[in-house]
Sequence to fold (110 residues):
Amino acid sequence: MDSSCRELEELARLMDGLAHPIRLAMVALLARHGEMYLAEIASALGVSRALAKIHLKKLESAGIVKSTVVLEKGKAVAKRFYKLAWLGELRVTPSSLVSLLDRCRGGGDE
Fold:
């Protein structure tokens, strides 16, 4: 198997990014509310800002969310806002994995 199959790597990246209940809840929050500030996300989920930041960084490294820093006018305060970057659909079944593996191998069986 070619270990550099782009589709397999993309699927693994997304699944790894989503593989925690807090991160799944964050995606749902951002889907519902659009852009949110770190403290808003933490408060809505009942977790600390530090924990929320760890999970948001994981989502960001997976390409699921993106962040922007906004400076408050007239203040030396910067806030980091998050919004969804990935708006796709993820459906994984054994048969879809077989099809994906076949495409990565060029259509043949082992």
